[in-house]
Amino acid sequence: MTEELFREDARMRECAARVMVVDAQPVGVQLDRTVFYPQGGGQAGDAGHLRLADGSLVAVADTRKGSTPGTVVHLLADPADAGRLQPGMAITAVIDWERRQRHMRFHTATHLLCALVPHPVDGCSITAAYARLDFHMTEPLDKEALNAGLARLVAASHPVRHRWISDAELDASPQLVRSMSVQPPRGSGRVRLLEIEGVDLQPCGGTHVGNTSEVGRVVVTKIEKKSASTRRVVLGLAD
What we know:
This protein is an alpha+beta fold and about 240 residues long. It is built from three helices and 15 strands. It has two domains: about 5-95, Beta Barrel (Elongation Factor Tu (Ef-tu), domain 3), CATH 2.40.30; about 100-235, Threonyl-tRNA Synthetase, Chain A, domain 2. Helix content is about 15%, strand content about 40%. A hairpin with a 2-residue loop joins strand 14 and strand 15 (about 230-235).
């Protein structure tokens, strides 16, 4: 199991860790603990580097969930670097903070968008360059109205926090689940809820900012009719 420090504190930029496994295919490293978010829930994985005891760096190109539940694999940018890592070795895991910050801003913005468009979500993608949500709906959406709503929610500085509930509590409140395509992870006995005070509450394991004001200038760049019952909304950062 990998201790997933980012679940409790998305602002952690680095952590001390030990190499547990060096994978051959794909070439990657499993650590006993990490600040790297693995691709999942529509959000892209983190990049960054591992700093060795001698100060040299091993670049991490992406992060994925391991084949064993509860493990995280840090995919190396250069497969040859695998020979520099051994199980038990002490390293420091450091994320690409600029990339993570953009993920946090976009992911929080998608929750604001969910509050403005009260329809189920049947597709999601969150990257450092853009975010998109596919809504299960038939009526048209107004770009200017959505931009005004996003600006209002960002300016209102709503606190963003998370808490954990049991699987049984989630079963008793099925209306909390907005996504049709990605279901909350189960099996551990608890589910992480993301709350934007007075705005949105739903299961989510991703990384987010601590206050909506930190989202900054986010805008709807495109609205597409993907099918008779799907409207796609694409977000960009105005800065």
